[in-house]
Each structure stands twice: as structure tokens, then as C-alpha cells.
Specification:
Elements lengths: L2 E8 L2 E7 L8 E2 L2 E3 L6 H13 L2 E15 L3 E14 L8 E7 L12 H9 L4 E8 L4 E9 L1
Parallel strand pairs: 1-6, 5-8
Antiparallel strand pairs: 1-2, 1-4, 2-3, 2-7, 5-6, 8-9
The chain binds the ligand Nc1ncnc2c1[nH]c(=O)n2[C@H]1C[C@H](O)[C@@H](COP(=O)(O)OP(=O)(O)OP(=O)(O)O)O1.
The site of ligand LR5KHM72 has 15 residues, from strand 1 and strand 4.
């Protein structure tokens, strides 16, 4: 696994970030980032959550993965982790502005285009494996699909 993403739920609210820098700058996304060497995916999900939002996740559950194929020649695997137990409060960081969003008001038109394909499955409680294709170094979304596991 190369990157992690944290789906943090608090009843009908989901934690999102407005990304201020790096890959996905200007998009709404979920906390996450690159998995460090010697780090487990679950640890990445909890570390990135703290770094990007200030929240302290207590348990991160693996609920699936997305394989991205970029420019037909690069593969990146992103583990998806569900966090329902956490402490603390959200705070703006150098990297992101965190916010709680109603799950019925997720701004899919301002997010990665693949998100609308898989986030609803996760919110419905499924574990998933997806494959998505991008070209032009992430700029153009080609498409892809998900299966429930
Ligand atoms: N297409 C798509 N959909 C949904 N989520 C993502 C993508 N592409 C992605 O890269 N991502 C996710 C994967 C990661 O969770 C983040 C990107 O992490 P990034 O900011 O590059 O990683 P950091 O380790 O935080 O980087 P630095 O800020 O330290 O440079 O988006």
C-alpha cells in the first residue's frame, strides 16, 4: 500500500478537508497521505488524521483499497480506513482546513472524480476494492470500477 485515507464518521457527519497544498490542492478530500516505511496502513491513517486535522483517532479499521493506474504505467495503492472513535477537536493546519460535513451534503463536484464512485459504497457499510485510471499525471479521470468484498 502506498497511501492511506481516513473516513472519519460521527453519526451523520463525515470529516473532510479542504486541501491547501500538494496533490489535490484546492479540492475537498479526506485526511490521508503517503504511508511511511515501517508504518502500517492503520498507523498512517491515524498519523495523517492528527497532522491534517488535529483529531486523535483511536481505532482505524481497514475497509478496502483503491488501485490507481496513472498514465498507464504507474500504480498507486490507497488503503481506506474507517475511524469512528477519536478524541480532540479539529483545527486548521498548514496542509488543510478540516470540517464536518453532513453525509448527504458531500461536495462531489469539488472532489477527486473517483470519489463519487466509491464513497457512497463505504457510507453504505461495504468493504470495497476499486481500480481507477487517470492520465496526465492525475489531471484527467478516465474511469474505473469497484467491487464489494
Ligand atoms: N484520485 C484520488 N482520489 C482520492 N484520494 C486520492 C486520490 N489521489 C490521491 O493521492 N489521493 C489521496 C491519497 C492520499 O491520502 C492523499 C495525497 O496525499 P499527499 O498529500 O500527497 O501525502 P502527504 O504524505 O500528506 O504529502 P506531503 O504533504 O507530506 O507532501 O490523497
Amino acid at each position: 500500500m502506498d497511501t492511506c485515507i481516513s473516513i472519519v464518521l460521527d453519526s451523520n457527519k463525515i470529516l473532510m478537508i479542504y486541501k491547501k497544498r500538494g496533490l489535490g490542492k484546492g479540492l475537498y478530500n479526506f485526511p490521508g497521505g503517503k504511508i511511511k516505511s515501517n508504518e502500517k496502513g492503520e498507523e498512517c491513517a491515524i498519523r495523517e488524521l492528527k497532522e491534517e486535522t488535529g483529531l486523535i483517532g483511536e481505532v482505524a479499521e481497514y475497509i478496502g483499497k483503491i488501485t490507481f493506474i496513472i498514465n498507464d504505467n504507474r500504480i498507486e495503492e490507497m488503503g481506506i480506513y474507517l475511524i469512528k472513535k477519536f478524541k480532540g477537536n479539529i483545527i486548521e493546519t498548514d496542509e488543510a482546513i478540516p470540517m464536518w460535513i453532513n453525509v448527504n451534503e458531500i461536495p462531489y463536484d469539488k472532489m477527486w472524480e473517483d470519489d463519487k464512485e466509491w464513497v457512497p459504497l463505504v457510507l453504505a457499510g461495504y468493504k470495497i476494492e476499486c481500480k481507477f485510471y487517470f492520465s496526465n499525471n492525475w489531471e484527467k479521470f478516465i474511469g474505473g470500477s469497484c467491487k464489494v468484498i
